[in-house]
Design brief:
The complex is a heterodimer. Chain A is an alpha/beta fold. Chain A has helices spanning about 55-60, 85-90, 95-105, 110-125, 140-155, 170-190, 200-205, 225-230, 235-244, and strands spanning about 5-20, 25-40, 40-45, 65-75, 80, 160-165, 190-195, 210-215, 215-220. Chain B has a single domain, classed as MetI-like fold, CATH 1.10.3720.10. The chains are: A alpha/beta, B mainly alpha. The complex binds adenosine-5'-triphosphate (ATP) and magnesium ion. Magnesium ion binds near residues 53, 54, 83 and 164 of chain A.
Chain lengths: ~240, ~290
């Protein structure tokens, strides 16, 4: 058995809303989540819209503070590829600036070195150097998602959470991006937690799959097992619906 | 392709005309630093109360001073006061609004209550109260107006920061390991620039009006300090019957300044700022 890159134990997460009379309303979104991501694997997470997938991703990466339970990272600087690259790339900056920013934050590279790494990384995700001068909104959806991947990868993570990275894209572009993610995993020894509500996408890319329903993980097994003999009714209905 | 783009995006006339009007006024003021048609303070009994026309474009006042030269210099005084007051209000307001909006929490609540208390009164009224304590004069009114402007800027900026911090690009910046200060002022601030600039334009208007009102009431720029548009209004009211062009010139100059800023603010408010210009587009196609 290989080493885990991430362990999540007994995780509960909450949102605080505004209730009546100025009282804070506590709403639980995730219930007792337990799982591990193994080195080199793609763990798929599937569930309906609103069941808490993004909340789980954000909590794991420290972007959501209202939780209890344990989150143990065994890698440095885990990263995220966001669902909507339109929103996750700063609209006021150029692509080159955005991809360079993580390197600036670490401050140990000279400007020329940073520049070179940015160009290398853009080429690595299938964009030529000329895109560095453009603003995110001057790119297509697929190109934007490539930039999103470049931003994550330039920080040399070993573990990446991809939160519906292809949901906003056309089917043909989806296939290209999935291909790129798999290729990068091979070349760079990455592990993914891959989130989607689309079972076909999950089936294509995952080694193992977790099924989430209303904030709970109700089933977790190899992709093969889940798709051939799902244990829960909920998973069965999901799979039947996806085969239509 | 280009035609098609332009056809459903009419030019932003508010912004264009606002910039034209403001540029003309600013140009006139800059020229006044080096040159005015006449010495604005030179009196001449022989040329007293001349009507507009001839050598004196806007006529002369009761001391025979050239009104056009005085308007040039007075607009400069008024605008420089407005500029300093807005600079103080906008910079402190941006920092306070940025911190409270970005971090939220108890401090946010506390500071916004103070804000509400201050903005509950019309700022010109507060300014008049304070000026009776501190005394009048150019420096005093700059600081009084500047400080009174802070809450309104803080409010606008706070709202924008609270909105922006929810966006994924801010979360992404956190994941990149960017420090909060840099997220606030390098990542978020450019995205709220249109709103901030629009607020600055409104701030200029309020400052010009406040200076004019205070000087008109005799608690602004003093006679010995400089000519200001508000001061000119005060000095000219006694001569409304004999030489109305004195008051009219100062009044029109104030109105034109305000019109320019109002149009800019309107233009910025109705349009997103970050969109490619035609020049940029052309470069990409080449
Ligand atoms: N900032 C927030 N404040 C309060 N409630 C929230 C917030 N964000 C999400 N929620 C709620 O938490 C629940 C889970 O949301 P989440 O975004 O994690 O779902 P998701 O599975 O990612 O959905 P989708 O597939 O649509 O992205 C939803 O019911 C949502 O309404
Ligand atoms: Mg989501």
């Amino acid at each position: 058995m290989s080493e885990p890159v991430l362990e999540v134990k007994n995780l509960n997460a909450y949102y605080y809303g505004n209730g009546v009379l100025g009282k804070k309303l506590k709403k639980q979104v995730l219930y007792d989540i337990n799982f591990e991501v193994q080195e080199g694997e793609v763990l798929g997470l599937v569930g309906e819209s609103g069941c808490g997938k993004s909340t789980l991703a954000k909590t794991i990466l420290g972007l959501h503070a209202d939780y209890d339970g344990e989150i143990i990272h065994h890698t440095n600087r885990p990263q995220m590829v966001f669902q909507d690259p339109k929103g996750s790339l700063n609209p006021a900056k150029t692509v080159g600036w955005i991809v360079e920013e993580p390197l600036r934050a670490y401050g140990k590279y000279s400007p020329e070195e940073r520049r070179k790494r940015v160009i290398d990384m853009l080429e690595r995700v299938g964009l030529s150097a000329k895109y560095a001068e453009r603003k995110p909104r001057e790119l297509s959806g697929g190109q934007r998602q490539r930039v999103g991947i470049a931003v994550a990868l330039i920080q040399r993570p070993k573990f990446i959470i991809a939160d519906e990275p292809v949901s906003a894209l056309d089917v043909t572009i989806q296939a290209q991006i999935l291909e790129l993610l798999l290729e990068l995993r091979r070349d760079l020894d990455l592990s993914y937690l891959f989130i989607s509500h689309d079972l076909n996408v999950i089936r294509q890319i995952s080694d193992r799959v977790m099924v989430m329903n209303e904030g709970r993980i109700i089933e977790q097994d190899t992709t093969e097992e889940i798709f051939t003999s799902p244990k829960t009714e909920y998973a069965k209905t999901l799979i039947d619906a996806s085969l239509l | 392709m280009k035609k098609l783009k332009n056809s459903h995006r009419a030019p932003n006339y508010n912004l264009i005309w606002g910039c034209v009007i403001t540029s003309i006024m600013v140009l006139m003021i800059v020229v006044s630093f080096f040159w005015t048609p006449f010495n604005p303070d030179a009196m001449s009994y022989a040329e007293k109360d001349l009507a507009p026309g001839g050598a004196h474009l806007l006529g002369t006042d009761n001391f025979g001073r050239d009104i056009f030269s005085r308007v040039m210099e007075g607009a400069g005084t008024t605008l420089s006061i407005a500029f300093c007051a807005v600079a103080i209000g906008a910079s402190f307001g941006t920092v306070i609004g940025g911190l409270t909006g970005y971090f939220g929490g108890a401090w946010d609540e506390f500071i916004m209550r103070i804000n509400d208390a201050v903005t509950a009164f019309p700022s010109i009224l507060l300014a008049l109260v304070i000026v009776t304590i501190t005394g009048s004069g150019r420096t005093n009114i700059i600081f009084i107006l500047g400080i009174l402007f802070i809450p309104s800027f803080a409010r606008v900026v706070r709202g924008e920061f609270a909105k922006q911090r929810q966006m994924d690009y801010v979360k992404n910046a956190k994941l990149m390991g960017v420090k909060p200060g840099r997220i606030m002022f390098v990542h978020i601030l450019p995205n709220i620039a249109p709103v901030l600039l629009s607020a600055v334009a409104i701030g200029f208007n309020n400052a010009v009006l406040a200076e004019a009102s205070m000087s008109y009431l005799g608690v602004g720029v003093s006679q010995t300090e400089a000519v200001s548009l508000g001061r000119m209004l005060l000095d000219s009211q006694a001569y409304w019957m004999t030489s109305p062009w004195q008051a009219l010139s100062a009044g029109c100059a104030i109105s034109i300044l305000i019109l320019g800023f109002a149009l800019i603010s309107e233009g910025l408010g109705t349009r997103p700022m970050w969109r490619p210009t035609t020049k940029r587009r052309r470069k990409q196609h080449a």
